[in-house]
Amino acid sequence: MKLYSPWEKAFKKVSSPFEHFIHAQTTTGKVLMLMTILALIMANTPLTEGYEQFFHTKIDLVVGSFKLSYTVHHWINDGLMTLFFFIIGLEIKREILVGELSNIKVAILPILAAIGGMIFPALIYFGINANEPSAIGWGVPMATDIAFAISALVLLGKRVSTALITFLVALAIVDDLGAVLVIAIFYTDQIHFVPLALSGITFLILIMLNRFGIHAILPYFIVGIFMWFFVLDSGIHATITGVIAAMAIPSKPKYAPLSFSKYTKKLLDEYDKYPVCENHILHEKQKYILASIEDRINAVESPATRLEQSLHLPVALIVIPLFALANAGIAIDFNSIGSVIIEPISMGIIFGLVLGKVIGIFGISWLAIKLKIAKLPDQSSMSQIFGVALLGGIGFTMSIFIADLAFLNSPEFIFQAKVGILTASLFAGLSGFLWLKYIAKKPV
Length: 444
Prior knowledge:
Strand content: under 5%
CATH architecture of the largest domain: Up-down Bundle
CATH class of the largest domain: Mainly Alpha
Number of domains: 2
Structural class: mainly alpha
CATH topology of the largest domain: Na+/H+ antiporter like fold
Mean pLDDT: 84
Distance between the termini: 41 Å
Largest sheet: 2 strands, antiparallel
Order of helices and strands: HHHEEHHHHHHHHHHHHHHH
Strand order of the largest sheet: 1-2
Number of helices: 18
């Protein structure tokens, strides 16, 4: 009889890729909340000096005459966050190939809702900040934090259908793709074409590795590192490397599942031919058979799937929490917080994330369903779509990331943006959760 370690059963419950994805996002949401609170505490207590000194400490990377010198904060935002964008790229690719975005009839509603949820917040922000230097921040309220939004839905349990969760996942992934394009196109100050061309060559090398059927991870990792350096030097934000590299990772397994099944049965029959020793020591041939089965298991799963599953937890428990700790720490002066909230930047973000997301997601969904362009997710209601639209106003991770890019040389604007993001995200999260829990009803 199998004896489980204390947490082993909980992890074994996560079996399908979708369940694994939801589990990872829920974990991220919980840890994000903890680290955000910790960052706010550290920024508003006597710990603030040590907090700021740590994230402004410089770390140098020197290879021969080549040198990169950035602060800890910069390494997190430009380096570690590349892994976060790599996961986003893998998720986008999976959804397009085999997920909810692979069937246009199913995908049309979240795609339209996501587009509406990006356009209207940007328009509202731009309307409030028109003719101001802060107008450049129109991209900040476009993003939805998938981890927080999914965590809120999962906490509702059986009150929401799996189809509604899937709708939010597909919507958030399209939203992420839109945010990546906005960062790449609109938040790049100056492009240096030689390193950009070199990054293009490295991408072609990644494609060639894919086409030659190379499934080992190491070659992609080595070429990806060079690609990151070139993109960083080109002037485009280096984290975009993660999404681009993900597109080149093989999504097909080395061996077909049917051949794996036949091969494994043959090896297991061979394994059973050898007698079991009294002390349970395996025969040398049995060890070889088990190693062959393990290799085959790895080969029947695509590199993209293996990477997504293996990186989800480290990104959820290390990368995103570090980002939150480094970026969510804002010193709050409660005597002046009222005046900060009514600044155009804060108001633009608050109204963009709360009102804009509702108009964009719910409004476009309602219109698409009324025009019979799309249909409601199974076992869902329009009232629940309204609740999901509210949750879409949780910007946080991507919104803070875009704010840092938009207002790169203006700490005052970044501060106002973060106040707006935290205020809007808190309101959107609470109102969306309460709406879905107490007002919206799941169809019988």
